[in-house]
Design goal:
The complex is a heterotrimer of chains A (403), B (233) and C (286). With 403 residues, chain A is an alpha/beta fold. Helices cover 41% and strands 19% of the residues of chain A. Chain A is built from 14 helices and 14 strands. In chain A, the strands form two sheets. In chain A, strands 1, 2, 3, 4, 5, 6 and 7 form a seven-stranded mixed beta sheet that branches. A seven-stranded mixed beta sheet of chain A has the order 9-8-10-11-12-13-14, with helices on both faces. Chain B contains ten helices and ten strands. In chain B, α3 runs parallel beside α6. The longest helix of chain B has 16 residues. The relative contact order of chain C is 0.20. Chain C has eleven helices and two strands. In chain C, β1 and β2 form a beta hairpin. Chain C is mainly alpha-helical and 286 residues long. The chains are: A alpha/beta (403), B alpha/beta (233), C mainly alpha (286). At the B-C interface, α2 and α3 of B face α6 and α7 of C. Chain C: Belongs to the binding-protein-dependent transport system permease family. LivHM subfamily. Chain C: Pfam families: BPD_transp_2. Chain C: It is found in: Cell membrane.
Chain lengths: 403, 233, 286
């Protein structure tokens, strides 16, 4: 594991400090456990970068003031490879060795679930980002919050949208051995059934599969009227490419959250034309708010590459943590900070467009909700077309009934 | 043709041959007889380069070949028809014969192939069959023909009659006789000493890694020790 | 009916890739008795190299491919000389360990030079042919043709040339081959050069058709060994038949049984074949 300390805005911070009268200045270390290498790094590395970016911005703006003291953030990021064992080790190391109390990142459900299973008993607060598995927020763990809505929240909205398009026979091709993709499809199916439609087949692929022609050929023979693709960007890109090569003439819907660059590495823009992505309204330039546009610029300037659409989940965690620390008035009492997070209004600086529950960013499960959007590939870009019919209040109620 | 002097060889630390002198003159058929474990096969392996000599010299037409690797010795003109036939079982008879001429680059190979198939009509019949499907006697004929395909200066036969039916043994003996008549220089190793001594111009008796007797085939056949121990009189 | 034909066509392209991998493995196994595990990673190296030349250096594909194949020949000879030759006379477990170590080393080098990101070799072949309802993308057609060409070239080389016959002879009976005058020190070099070039070709095909990423090579070499066992250890025709059979089986299994179990079904078929023919489809009973 690599230990990286953010020194990005070092110069800016130094200038700021020099200009001000000497204040009692403390450093607060915050941790990141995320996939910095390996297959999940497409999601994890941008998240770690986003936390570092937010921390440097906060430092440059004068740090966090808690009980008369000013704290500068220091980010310690460890690579958990998206793997449960590695994530457990990384978090143990952060808590036991580095003395960190606030841990961010967490792009992947397996790794996140492993840490969530013991974080309740630690003197720490865990802020989950992109991991979409529902069960992470069903146990009302008091010291855990999550910025990304669960997959089935989005799946239900997607199902209602596809049903409203008039499709009756939907073929599914997905990474169905991954829990949250399966739950997306389950919620999707429920909404589709309500409208009298059905899923005609559930075809699966494994993470390393790149040849989807057998599954697509089968689907071609089923007279489906729509295709739903759920899975990671890379296999999904091959599905879109090979569906065209097989002459599969169906409307294609997906749940992948990949950037344009990521898809174009595999498929041509022509092969992607018309594909829908039904997902939380994450960062896309065409749908971005002012915050979103600024985030995109700053991130690109700092790392020389565009941010991934889901990376703001981690950026927003950092600002939520800042506000909660300031509201709680302590950096030591993690229980107070955790309570403050649950009471928090949506911070001004966030990038994603959260739908507050009772005016609060996180519901009592610790879950935040964004709107869901229908994006379509048009001429080489993901274009925001419309909001999906999402109901965060109803979903939040439903989530509270689960355990 | 072949001149072996003071040859010592063995496996690892164990010495099997304790200094052997042996000559084969041009056009001569020389037999090497002896009991199991006397060192006959070791002698041949050393001459053919499958085993490195520990001491002594092996000269072919005056050129030292001792210690050369196996394929280089083949190129010097020594070919062995190995014990147990060792045909290439999945290759056709024809391809086995062509492999025999592997070390040659002249253009007489096609003619030689015809000659071999005239000499062994059964091989022509079975030309496209996999060698592994041939009977033991047929495989022996193939192994002999394959060895001759190399147009060797010296052709070594290692136990050509081993494991064959008596009728086939007679056939093999007749074949070797024909090859001898063709003027081929032959070194023959046989457990079937009677057959070997009948064919041979001269013969050596090997016992426990040393040459104990030497003479014409006729002389050895009538030598009382040989007769008693090896010819079963 | 169309669906079955389409699935068979789908399976042939990937089957061709399996054949190329298995041909390399089977000749190496036949000659040296080595299970050359690093073959998959070496083949991925070829794919990465081609990607680097095409996407990184802007070299046209028609030039990049021969360059990569040549690099494969050199790499193959280097592997034989530096990795396997020193343990040739040692016990088999040594070669086994060298093979495992070499796999990790090549995987590591790939990661070091080319990174952990998935790469796809860009080609401009994006036409799709439709023959009576069966669609065949241009790229797949070229992959099938190229695989067929290479398989034919290799078969001709082994069956019709002197060196090829020597390779077979060494595989069938090493001592007898020496007695025929075959230099058994140069033959393994030729075999590794040829095998690695075929592996590189397979890597390029995987890279253009699908993608190259860390771990793909391991999956490929496992499939290669499955083909080897299915077709018969050391048998060249066995590798050809076995590879095509495995590719089509996988495709049909995914299409008609379940895509979640396509690998399982392919291996079940393999076990089933071995129950009735323990020596493999075209292997010789011993």
């Amino acid at each position: 594991m690599k230990r990286t300390i953010s020194t990005l805005a070092g110069a800016a911070v130094a200038a700021l400090i020099a200009a001000q009268p000497v204040l009692a200045e403390e450093t607060l270390a915050i941790g990141v456990s995320d996939a910095l290498t390996g297959g999940a790094a497409v999601y994890g590395l941008p998240q770690a970068n986003a936390v570092k970016l937010a921390a440097s911005e906060i430092n440059a703006a004068g740090g966090i003031s808690v009980g008369g003291e000013t704290y500068m953030l220091e980010v310690i990021a460890y690579d958990d490879k998206g793997n449960p064992t590695e994530a457990t080790n990384a978090v143990r190391k952060l808590i036991d060795r580095d003395g960190v109390k606030y841990i961010l990142g967490f792009c992947c459900s397996g790794a996140t679930g492993a840490v969530a299973s013991f974080i309740e008993y630690e003197d720490a607060v865990m802020l989950v980002g992109n991991a979409a598995e529902r069960s992470i927020t069903t146990r009302e763990i008091p010291n855990l919050t999550r910025t990304r809505p669960p997959a089935d929240y989005t799946g239900a909205a997607a199902g209602a949208f596809v049903a409203a398009k008039g499709h009756k026979r939907v073929a599914v091709l997905g990474a169905l051995d991954v829990g949250f993709y399966a739950s997306y499809v389950d919620a999707f199916e429920k909404e589709l059934n309500k409208a009298g439609g059905e899923i005609v087949t559930r075809e699966a692929f494994a993470l390393k599969d790149r040849d989807m022609t057998p599954q697509l050929t089968k689907i071609r023979g089923l007279e489906a009227d729509a295709l739903l693709v759920v899975g990671y960007v890379e296999p999904a890109a091959f599905i879109y490419r090979q569906s065209v090569e097989l002459g599969l003439d169906l409307p294609r819907y997906g749940f992948t959250s990949g950037s344009e660059e990521q898809f174009l590495r595999v498929a041509t823009s022509e092969q992607m034309e018309g594909v829908w992505d039904l997902r939380p309204t994450e960062l896309t330039l065409l749908s971005a708010t002012e915050n979103g546009i600024a985030y995109h610029e700053n991130y690109a300037a700092a790392y020389g590459i565009s941010p991934s659409p889901s990376s703001p989940y981690a950026y927003d965690q950092t600002y939520a943590l800042k506000d909660a620390l300031e509201a709680a008035g302590t950096v030591e009492d993690t229980a107070a900070v955790a309570r403050a997070l649950r009471e928090l209004a949506v911070p001004d600086e966030v990038v994603m467009q959260y739908l507050p529950i009772d005016g609060k960013m996180f519901d009592r499960n610790g879950q935040a909700y964004t709107s869901n959007g229908a994006f379509q590939w048009r001429d080489g870009n993901w274009t925001f077309v419309q909001d999906l019919p999402s109901d965060p209040v109803a979903y939040s109620e439903f989530l509270s009934t689960l355990d | 043709m072949l001149e072996v002097r003071g040859l010592r060889a063995g496996y690892g630390a164990i010495e099997v041959l304790h200094g052997i002198d042996l000559d084969v003159a041009e056009g001569e058929c020389v037999a090497l007889i002896g009991a199991n474990g006397a060192g006959k096969t070791t002698t041949l392996k050393t001459i053919c380069g499958l085993l490195a000599p520990k001491a002594g010299t092996i000269r072919l037409r005056g050129r030292e070949i001792g210690g050369l690797s196996g394929h280089a010795i083949v190129r010097e003109g020594v070919t062995m028809c190995p014990e147990g036939r060792q045909v290439f079982p999945q290759m056709s008879v024809l391809k086995n014969l062509r492999m025999g001429a592997y070390a040659r680059s002249d253009d007489g190979q096609a003619d030689d192939l015809e000659r071999m198939m005239d000499m062994f009509p059964i091989l022509r019949e079975r030309a496209h069959q996999a060698a592994g499907t041939l009977s033991g006697g047929e495989q022996e004929m193939l192994a002999i023909a394959r060895a001759l395909m190399a147009r060797p200066k010296l052709c070594i036969f290692d136990e050509p009659s081993l494991g064959l039916a008596p009728k086939i043994v007679a056939e093999v003996a007749a074949t070797l006789g024909r090859i001898r008549e063709m003027g081929m220089t032959i070194l023959l190793v046989e457990q079937n000493s009677l057959m070997a001594l009948r064919l041979a111009d001269r013969a050596y008796l090997l016992e426990a890694g040393e040459i104990v007797l030497e003479g014409t085939g006729q002389e050895l056949q009538s030598h009382p020790d040989v007769a008693k121990a090896y010819l079963g009189h | 009916m169309i669906e079955i034909l389409q699935q068979i066509v789908n399976g042939i392209a990937i089957g061709g890739v399996y054949v190329l991998i298995a041909l390399g493995l089977t000749t190496v196994f036949g000659i040296l008795g080595i299970a050359h595990f690093a073959h998959g990673s070496v083949s991925m190296f070829g794919g990465y190299l081609t990607f680097f030349l095409v996407a990184g250096q802007g070299i046209p594909l028609v030039i990049a491919i021969p360059v990569a194949l040549t690099a494969g020949v050199v790499l193959g000879m280097a592997i034989e000389l530096l990795a396997y030759r020193p343990v040739r006379k040692a016990s088999h477990i040594n070669a086994f360990i060298v093979a495992l170590g070499l796999t990790m080393m090549v995987e590591g080098l790939n990661l070091e030079f080319f990174g952990h990101e998935q790469v796809v070799i860009p080609t401009s072949f994006d036409r799709v042919f439709n023959i009576g309802g069966v669609t065949l993308p241009e790229l797949r057609l070229y992959v099938i043709l190229a695989a067929a060409l290479l398989i034919a070239a290799m078969t001709i080389f082994v069956e019709r040339t002197k060196t090829g016959q020597a390779i077979r002879a060494v595989a069938e009976n090493r001592d007898a081959a020496i007695l025929m005058g075959v230099n058994v020190r140069t033959i393994p070099l030729v075999v590794f050069a040829m095998s690695t070039a075929l592996g590189v070709a397979a890597g390029i095909m995987v890279g253009a058709l699908f993608a190259i990423a860390p771990g793909i090579g391991e999956g490929l070499v496992i499939k290669g060994f499955a083909v080897l066992i299915l077709g018969g250890l050391g048998s060249i025709p066995g590798a050809i038949v076995g590879g095509i059979v495995l590719g089509i089986t996988e495709s049909l299994a995914a299409g008609f049984v379940s895509s979640a179990y396509k690998d399982v079904i392919a291996f079940l078929v393999m076990i089933f074949v071995l129950l009735f023919r323990p020596q493999g489809l075209l292997g010789k009973a011993s």
